[in-house]
Design a protein that fits this description.
36% helix, RIPOR3, flat, 6-stranded antiparallel sheet, 3 helices, 24% strand, FAM65 N-terminal domain-containing protein, FAM65_N, alpha+beta
Length: 316
Amino acid sequence: FSAAPTGGAPLPPSVCYNTTHFSTMQSRCQRRSDPFGLLPDRFRSRMFTGSTKLPPTKTPQPERLDEVYAALRRGLQSYLQVHQLELDSLGQQIRENKKNSRLVRALKAIERFMRRLEFHLSKVEELYDAYCIQRRLRDGASKMVAAFNSATGSREARESLSEANKGYREYTEHMCSLESELESQMGEFHVKMKGLAGFARLCAGDQYEVLMRYGRQRWRLRGRVEVSNKQMWDGEEFTFLPLITELLSIKVTELKSLANHVVVGSVSCEMLDLFCPLPQTLAVDINDLGTVKLNLEVTWRSNSTHPSNQQPSVLL
């Protein structure tokens, strides 16, 4: 995951930076000619019903949840580090300017926001701990089911097997419920359309359609290349709710005529690296040669709203 700071004072090593190039993430970004048919079942986009959240999965995904939890926790910790830098900067300015009411109000607002972030982080950690307990209980019940299945068919063995199966189902339901609850703590991804980059590929008058699918969420927008090479799009911003078991699918199509549409390329991208406190500029390679790129700006916002409803500035 390549990244670089946008300016100002250097951030701590553990703080995410804000420029990302998806072409370097070959292990997390899979191109395919069939845009929605080759992903594993657990990542395959489903039919859209208008809902923006997936229902709880019927089968727990503990390995995937481990990855999501680690990324979410890392993102919240980075948020706290960035705002601590803001807090230190404000404190220094207050000491230099003495009684400045505006700076004092800003400092108190950031302190309140950091307390909300800390509470949010503790909530996420509690959910994960509860999930791990249910996972261990489920694993134990699974072993008991296997043991009783291999035992003799006595009445006691059948009763014990029934109880073990019941416990296994209950622990499975609890895990699915906790996965859904953790998903509700993952905040939002705000995506801004920055246009296509195609070097000599894009010409004045060309029209394109971009379709992004993320679980049941969908963003479709169309754009046109003007004579001045400026691009006009019918949509500029969209909000995706993070999901545990889904990848972001992007498909770009050139609209040549009503009956002649040419698929430029499709790509599926991992979202875990986007849990970062600062906005990230993404250049997504749409085709195999990388001659067409989709430029996006992605901002992750946790459930704790920043006091100014903006992203941290690091230095004030």
